[in-house]
């Protein structure tokens, strides 16, 4: 099975950048988030980050290579297959509330070959600007992705063929991220910065029986751990780290992203891993956990009173105080204004059907 190359990992990071702040990505590219789509089709709410899946990557890479070999640019591939056929053939079992999608792109030159990083950035931006592809990139129901960035001759062009296979199967959620040295100080992963060989261990807190889940970062720096909802102590170790770096993460019903940035200096200060930065947790994790508490106490909670407290500073009702105290550890990092904004984003998503089938997966070239 595949592991992502540095270019593949870079594409995953760009996809997740867009998903975690769709409005900012649209603004960066000078478009409206729903340009070319019906109003409100894509919510401004953060979308869960996608975890790398090797079967989806195998499917994407096989199709990208087939397109190069045959000089054919199409979602229809070998033996008349569609993306769903290829995903299943690669071993990605579609069970439960499943869905899939595919984006493809190519770019080439007949003169001096274009820098592959620059080509990939241009292709990624073009896919986001295209309405149908943007829907795939920002579909919140997806949890996993496999990317392929394959160079070769295409119609006599020196080309970079890109394929993105998106999927969701079963009920697992994922802790995912990337370890990297930010060598160019741009606060973002760049090919060549990945840190491989770092062990990532997630230990479930409050469990009667020890539950320790682990992965090791690949050569490009990425990792992914399938886990049940809960609060985990996450430890990064090995891979040249002078001492472990530890962070607490709460998984709800969506994926979470936790990156290890500039770990080469870890351990030079006081505390655990003081020289490294751990970043990337989305706002949705504490809010998801809070919503579980709200569901349990829903009959006692007055949302109008909560809104008045956030906006006007009126006293918080006792029922809300008790609920918040139950989730005190979860809510430490969430301020009132951000909480109100995120709750409104969740409300925006209410009523959206959560059932997709194979015929829904294919969206444009």
UniProtKB/TrEMBL annotation:
<dbReference type="InterPro" id="IPR035940">
    <property type="entry name" value="CAP_sf"/>
</dbReference>
<dbReference type="Pfam" id="PF00188">
    <property type="entry name" value="CAP"/>
</dbReference>
<dbReference type="InterPro" id="IPR014044">
    <property type="entry name" value="CAP_dom"/>
</dbReference>
<dbReference type="InterPro" id="IPR013783">
    <property type="entry name" value="Ig-like_fold"/>
</dbReference>
<protein>
    <recommendedName>
        <fullName>SCP domain-containing protein</fullName>
    </recommendedName>
</protein>
<feature type="domain" description="SCP">
    <location>
        <begin position="13"/>
        <end position="157"/>
    </location>
</feature>
């Amino acid at each position: 099975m595949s592991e992502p190359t540095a270019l593949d990992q870079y594409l995953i990071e760009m996809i997740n950048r867009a998903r975690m702040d769709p409005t900012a990505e649209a603004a960066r590219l000078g478009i409206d988030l729903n340009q070319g789509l019906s109003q409100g089709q894509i919510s401004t709410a953060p979308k869960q980050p996608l975890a790398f899946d090797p079967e989806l990557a195998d499917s994407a890479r096989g199709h990208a290579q087939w397109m190069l070999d045959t000089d054919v640019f199409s979602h229809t591939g070998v033996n008349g297959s569609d993306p769903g056929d290829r995903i299943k053939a690669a071993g990605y079992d579609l069970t439960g509330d499943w869905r899939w999608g595919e984006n493809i792109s190519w770019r080439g030159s007949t003169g001096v070959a274009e820098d592959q990083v620059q080509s990939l950035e241009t292709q990624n931006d073009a896919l986001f600007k295209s309405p149908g592809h943007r829907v795939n990139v920002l579909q919140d129901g997806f949890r996993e992705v496999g990317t392929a960035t394959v160079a070769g001759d295409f119609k006599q062009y020196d080309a970079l063929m890109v394929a993105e296979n998106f999927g969701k199967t079963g009920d697992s959620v994922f802790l995912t991220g990337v370890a990297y040295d930010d060598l160019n100080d741009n606060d973002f992963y760049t090919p060549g910065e990945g840190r491989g060989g770092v062990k990532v261990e997630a230990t479930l807190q409050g469990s009667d029986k020890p539950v320790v889940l682990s992965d090791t970062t690949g050569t490009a720096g990425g990792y992914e751990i399938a886990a049940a909802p809960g609060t985990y102590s996450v430890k990064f170790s090995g891979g040249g780290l002078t001492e472990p770096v530890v962070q607490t993460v709460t998984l709800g019903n969506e994926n979470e992203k936790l990156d290890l940035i500039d770990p080469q200096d870890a351990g030079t200060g006081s505390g655990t891993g003081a020289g490294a930065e751990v970043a990337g947790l989305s706002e949705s994790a504490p809010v998801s956990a809070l919503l579980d508490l709200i569901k349990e106490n829903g009959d006692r909670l007055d949302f109008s009173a909560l809104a008045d407290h956030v906006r006007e500073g009126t006293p918080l009702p006792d029922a809300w105080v008790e609920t918040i105290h139950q989730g005190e550890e979860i809510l430490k990092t969430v301020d009132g204004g951000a909480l109100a904004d995120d709750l409104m984003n969740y409300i925006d998503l209410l009523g959206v059907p959560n059932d997709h089938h194979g015929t829904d997966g294919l969206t444009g070239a």
